[in-house]
Each structure stands twice: as structure tokens, then as C-alpha cells.
Amino acid sequence: xxxxxRDLSLGHSKRGTNAAAAAAAASVNxxxxxxxxxxxxxxxxxxxxxxxxxxLTAYEIxxxxxxxxxxxxxxxxxxxxxxxxxxxxxxxxxxxxPSLQRTLTSTAASRVKKAFGLKSSPSSKKSLSGKETSPAKxxxxxxxVGELMRCQMRVSEDTDSRIRRALLRIAASQVGRxxxxxxxxxxxxxxxxxxxxxxxxxYESWQKRNLKILEAGLLLHPRLPLDxxxxxxxxxxxxxxxALDRPLETGRNNESMQLLRNAVVSLAxxxxxxxxxxxxxxxxxxxxxxxxxxxxxCFDVNEEMSIIDEVDELMEQIKKTWGIxxxxxxxxxxxxxxxxxxxxxTTGQVEIELLGAADNQLAEVAKDAKATKDPEYSxxxxxxxxxxxxxxxxxxxxxxxxxxxxxxxxxxxxVSLGVSAAKILVxxxxxxxxxxxxxxxxxxxxxxxxxxxxSLRTAFAQRGGAGGHNCQLTDVIIMEKADSSRxxxxxxxxxxxxxxxxxxxxxxxxxxxxxxxxxxxxxxxPLSAGVAVAxxxxxxxxxxxxxxxxxxxxxxxxxxxxxxxxKLEKDLVQIAVEDSxxxxxxxxxxxxxMPPYEAEAAIANLVKQWIKTRVDRLKEWIDRxxxxxxxxxxxxxxxxxxxxxxxxxxxxxxxxxFFQLPIPxxxxxxxxxxxxxxxxxxxxxxxxxxxCGSRNTFVPTMPPLTxxxxxxxxxxxxxxxxxxxxxxxxxxxxxxMNGDNSFGIPQLCVRINTMQRIRxxxxxLEKRVITHxxxxxxxxxxxxxxxxxxxxxxxxAACLESIQQLSEALAYKIIFHDLSHVLWDGLYVGELSxxxxxxxxxELEQNLMIVSDTIHERVRTRVITxxxxxxxxxxxxxxxxxxxxxxxxxxxxxxxxxDFKSLKDLFWSNGDGLPxxxxxxxxxxxxxxxxxxxxxxxxxxxxxxQVTLETFGSSARSRLPLPPTSGQWSSTEPNxxxxxxxxxxxxxxSRFLKKTYNLPKKL
Length: 1003
Known about the structure:
Elements: H1 17-27, H2 51-65, H3 77-86, H4 98-101, H5 111-116, H6 122-129, H7 135-138, H8 145-152, H9 157-173, H10 184-191, H11 200-220, H12 232-245, H13 255-268, H14 286-296, H15 311-318, H16 322-325, H17 329-346, H18 352-371, H19 375-396, H20 399-402, H21 409-429, H22 431-435, H23 443-461, H24 479-491, H25 498-521, H26 528-549, H27 556-579, H28 588-592, H29 599-628, H30 642-660, H31 666-689, H32 695-698, H33 725-739, H34 745-774, H35 781-785, H36 795-818, H37 838-854, H38 857-881, H39 893-908, H40 916-929, H41 937-952, H42 974-982, H43 987-997
Helix pairs in contact: 1-8, 2-14, 10-11, 11-12, 12-13, 14-17, 17-18, 17-19, 18-21, 19-21, 21-23, 23-26, 25-26, 25-27, 26-27, 27-29, 29-30, 29-31, 30-31, 30-34, 31-34, 31-36, 34-36, 34-37, 36-38, 38-39, 38-40, 39-40, 41-42
């Protein structure tokens, strides 16, 4: 860009002198646009020096720098015209400086403006179009560069004339001396006295201004540091302060002026290289502030946001001040960048072209920064860039608040400016960056990353559009609202799901970010949308974690929030994935920044807690209700417990409630629920059979073996029956159950019915679950093919086991407890003819009628079969372990066989009872043993010896061992044969038992 200001040819313009003068007159006293929020980065001068003082001094420097080196007097067309028109006779006028008398014509477009993409100023267009221009004005000569500069800097013609007269006198008195070797304020003070001004006040203001400029340039901001041992600074300070209180007498070589000159020259003529140049306006920041005033003249006085079309010619003349101000091309680039940027800021930030021009000029500054290591230059540049970057970042760190649909076009320019400034600061000024490999730092990407994260955090934390914009791009629920709602939820159990609303708004914000902002930011950061959604993911995640930590139970609001969070996360991840398609790692780095919310896991945990609570309550209910359950057969027509009805109703309600939960994973969590319900029903079945006893509870303990005493069968052994400890234990258990009405025969039948009822209900429940699953949106075909419908694993077996145990308990209780007086205590005791089986059959038939009327038809056959089996076991037990009160002769075998046939006929019931094949199956053991009772004693003894030897082997040859009681009665089992011999009323049998085992005749 620097070449645009070098060797520029002058164009021509039809901008009229009088038009410009009128514009200048209208704006002479105009104040510059304030920029309180954007202080100058070049430092502040003394508050006593106003912008007007700086502007006049800058104009004086400009005019003096553009004078001819030949020493001829300078003038302007305006001055020459005024002289011609005001004097009746021609007055010789001094030659006009070639540089200032050059007239202006307008080119098609300024090279500077074209390079920056700037448009022509409206006022220039108006002048060029010929509108509002009278014929008299059109006849005037075209404006010169000097006259244009005077108008642009709002300098009156009188002031301009006085400056030129002074320069003319200076040139005449110091022929051949360069302006750079003079101290201009000192020379001007030397030329004028109070009579040269319209009034004393104007004169004193002019003198004070020049003295303050001398103080600033030589004492406050000198080019070279002051030597503390030099007395000249103190003398100059005293003279200036004295003159400010009491004006000097200027315009002549008096003592006070001489003292002033000596002090000024001694300080201004100090040089490190021995040159003759005077240093009075080239100290920082005075030189930059003066140069700013000159560059500000490039802006149209009527259109403050537009650069004049004659900027090329004007800039060529402004360059000539570099020698006085100590400027160069690099410093010019810095200052011009700031002037463009400052003008954009202070004119309402609406002329984007100015911002773009400043950004383009920064490209030149970046080149300069790489080409020099001058610490002073770096310091100045750092100050300006820091100010620009600070302004840009104030907007970019919260760009959702800064930009809306009305000003979104300016965002790219502001981002570009901020990134450019940051890159120069980091890459060309930062020593830390130079020590590191440049490949390790991507300044632009890092800055954009910071802007995105900061702005989205701000947008998340407060409502978008704050600061005057009615912003619709970032209409986000403020987190203060979420915080207050969360606090309120602690005191109000049914608070609104604010986080669900927030999740929806965050999703909209993410989409808006992707559509509106990411396309702009993607120029500097290829994963801008990914960074944005990762930031939003983290922000919402923080709120969600706090929310989850405060949830103690499953509620509709909690599920709604978690489902909304899950949807939001899926949407954010999808944006990140789409944004990362072309990235090197495929977006893995961004995805790693988004640890899963695990909202589904949180929902699952809440549902599992909900399940646990329901299951625990159901177990407590089972314990409580089974303690109160009376198992009344009249409770309902089908004869099952009312507690079972209520249990299945609760389970059905629980299933309905589960499938009504607004969760997305019913099939996944159903096994947890069914396992809990399954265990509850199993627990119920277990409790229902508890205390009812079993087969072993009622079967009496077999007494020790004895041998019969022949001929004394009816001795007084019946006077008192001894009971073994086991028999006493059994009888005590039976007594306890007998005292509890809940364990009676009808009650046991109700328990069996209840277990059967539950078995049937399980099938219905499973069908209902399948129906629920089919109506569930989250269920899939594989959920059914994987056997999810087989949901009860423990209960069917538990119910079947309970039915089996209860049926046996019922059967053996009837036979060995309820009918013990006619079986164990009556059957075949004493004389067989008077103690046969008819009493047992009669009472057993009555019990069978009660059972048949009470028991469920689907388990009736099983229960009756168990009673038959128990009666057969009881019949055998009387024959083989009935104790010494029973004895059988060979002749009694027919009675025994007839009685057993009567017992079988009871269960056959002429074909209306149990099937004959079933009776045959369970009577096989008895039928196999009964022939032993009609076998002669010798044959029995022989068979017993043979079977014992076969069982025990050669060790039984010397002495027959006593075979243990196995309980498995059989004609080929040694203990069964031995027991038949023990109860044989025969002398041979008694002698064999006495000799072989020394068995007693009585207990």
C-alpha cells in the first residue's frame, strides 16, 4: 500500500474556490467528533493544548514545508484573488509556490481510494455534477492544493494570510535556509507583534499557543532525552511560564525574545548525527498528534465519513512535513491506519468501507513490522494495535450482543481487523512468539476460538440482544432464570422444566450460530461451528449436572428435561460432525470436548430407582398382608386368597405406570422391572407355603425293630405307648399347626388354589406386556425375537414348587395327622378282624369330598393323587414299621390284600375317580411288597440271606449285617424283607431274629 503515496501525479477537479470556502466558513468553529471511549493510543499531550491549537500548528507546518526552497514568497489563489479585487490598482504579488498553486482536477477515481475500496464523497459528486453551482462561481479559477488544505483544516483566510506573510518574511530574512533547520513557532513569534492581530485577546491566544507548542516539543516530549545537567530546559521553562502569565513583547529583537531564542535553539539544535536539523516537533507523541491533524484533512468537511477525491494530491503535500515531524513511511502507515479506524469509530461505526480501509492499511503495517526491529517503532505500533484490538475484542468477545440482522455485514471487517492486529502483536512484536516455532501457534485460529467460546458463554449466561439491539439471533433463556428456577424447584416439587426450555433455546442458538456466524468465522477457523456447539454443550452440561445431582426421584419434569438434553446433545454432535467433515482428524478433537451427557443413563438410573421403590413397597405390602391373610375358602367363588387378587392388581398397575413413563427405553428397562416383580411374586409364593409343613413333617418316625412273641400277641403292650424324640418333635409341630386355623385342610386348599391362580395370571400379564411393547415407539422387532416376552423366570417354577409342597403337605397331613387315629393308632392293631381298613376309608372319603369341593379343578387330580400316594405310604408304614403292637401271620395276608384293594377302589370310585393307570402306577410298591406276607417264613429267611449277601458281599458270610432302613420298600430290598420277618407272628422268625440280631420282643 505504501507505493500509493509515492510519486503521485496531480489530478484536476472542478471543486470551486468559493464553494469550498463557504463550506470551510460553515465549519471553522465545528468541534471534532468526540471519541471518549477510544483514547488516542499515541499518548496524551498537556491538557492546555487543544485540538484547535494542534490543528493550527499542523497547518503552519504544512504550509511551511510546502514552500519553495528558493526562498520566494508563498501565496494561494484565494489570497491573490482577494488582493486583486480589493485594490483599485495592481499591487505586485509574490510568486506562488508551485506545490501549492497547482490546480486540482478530479480523476475518475483516486488511486488511494480505489486501492482501499472507498467511494467518492457525496459533496464531490454534487460539485462535479454541476448542481448548486452559479455561473459566477463556475467562472472562478479552480481550487489549488493549498486552498483545499486550508478549507479542510478549517483555517480562516485571515489566519492563512497571516501565516503566509510570516513565512514570506522568514524566507526573505534567512535566504537559503531550510525550514527543517528552523524552529517555526520561534520564528513566528519573532515576526508578529500585537498590532498584527485584530485585538489583544487574539494576539495573546496566538502567543500562548506557540509557547505551549514549544514547551511540548522541547520540554515535555523532546526528540532527544533532556540532560539533567543542562540548565537550558529550566531557563526555557521559566521563560514560558512567565510569558503565559505576562505576554512577551514579540515582533522585535528585544532582550526577552533573545533569551527565548537562546534557550529554544540550545535545546532544538541538539543532534546525535551532527545534522543542522532542529528537533522541536518530532518528539513522540507530539509529532503523531500533529500528523493526525494533517491526515484528518483527507476527510470531507461536509461528509465526515468520506475521504475527498483529491486525497492523492493532498497526501503528496502532507508527505513534505515528514522532515519536520520526524515521520517516515512506516510511521505514516501506523498513523494513517489509526486515523481511518478512529474515523470509523467516531462517526457511528456505519461506514464499513473505512473499517475495510483500515484493515487493508494494516497489511502494510504488518509488512513494516516484519522489516524492522526498531524498539521505538514497536512500542508505538504495540500501543496502536492494543487499542484497536481492545476495541474489536470488546465487541467480538460478546458478538451475539454486538451484531444482529441490521449490522451483521460489519462483523467480517471487525473480525478481520482484530485478527490482523492480534497477528502483528503476536507474530512481529511478541518475543515469546519468536522464541517458539511459528508452526506451533495459529494466532488467527486461537483468537477466533476465544471469541466463539466467550461470546457463546455470554449469550448462554444472559439474554441475547442486551445493549439496545432487539436481537432475534440470540434469544436465549438467561441462566439467571435457570438458577432462580432451580432454587425455586427445591421448595416447589412440581416446578416447570426450565432446563427443557433452555435445551430447546440452546438448540436454536446452535443452529443460528451455524447459519449466521459460522460462515463468517470459518474464514479464520475451519471448525468454528464445532467450537461453538462444543461450548454450548459444556455450558448446558454444567447446568444439567447440577440438575441431575438434585433429582431424588423420577418425575415427568425430570424425564422431560433429560430427554430434551439427549435431543440437544444429538443435534450439537451432528453439527460438529458436519462441520468437521473436511478436517484432518475428522472432528475427533471437537468431539472429545463434548463428554456425553449420558441423559439416557440418568433416565435409566431414575427408572431403576423408581422400580426399586415400587418393588420394595410391594414386598412390604406382601409381608403385611400375608400376616393378616386367613385363607378363607369363602373369600370368592374360585377359592383363592384375596391378597393374591390385590397382588396381581398392584403388579398390573405397576406395569401400566411403567409403560406410561415418558422415557425412550422401555424395552431396555423392562427386564429390570419384571425381575423385581418376578421376585416379589416368588416371595409371595414362598411366604404362602411357609409354615405349612411337608411330607416329612407328618410322616411318623419309624420305631426300632423288634420281634414278635408268639402266643402273647395281646399282652399289655397297649397300655402305654412310648414315643421317640423324633415322634414327639413331629407331634409338637403338628400340634402348633393344628392350633392355627390358617393351616386347616380348606385353608391349604385355598393356598394351592392361590398358587394356581397366580400361574394363570402370569400368562395374562405376559400377553399384556407384549401388547404394551408393540404400542411402545422405542420397541423393535428384535425385542420380541430375543424372548423379551418370557419375562417371568422365577415365579412359574416357584408357584409349581409351592403347589407341589402344599399338595404333599395337605395329603400327608390328612393321612398321618387328621386320620392318624384310624391309621397309625387303629389299623391292624391287635386282632386284624376287628381293626381293618373300613374306618380309615370312611373318614378318608369325607376328607376327599372336602378337598374335591374346595380345590381348583386344574390341580384337583394332582392333589387327590398325592392323597392316594400318602395313603399307600401310610398303609405300607403300618405293615412294615407299625411297632410291636402289630403282628401278622401268613394267614392274614388275604385280609391285608383285600383291605388294600378297598383302598384303591376308593380312589377309583367306579371309574369316576382317578384313572386306573394312575392308581396302578402309584400302587406298584404296595403290590410288590404284599406277596411277602403270604410267603412262608423259611422262604423269607432264605431270601433275606441271599439278598443281604448280594448287597454286602463276602463280608456278610460270617455274620449277616443289619441292613439300614432306606425307606424304599421292595421285595428285593434287605430291610423290607427283615421288617416282614420282624412282624411275622411265627416262632421260626423270632428265633432267627434273636439269633442273628438279638432283637428284643418289645421296646
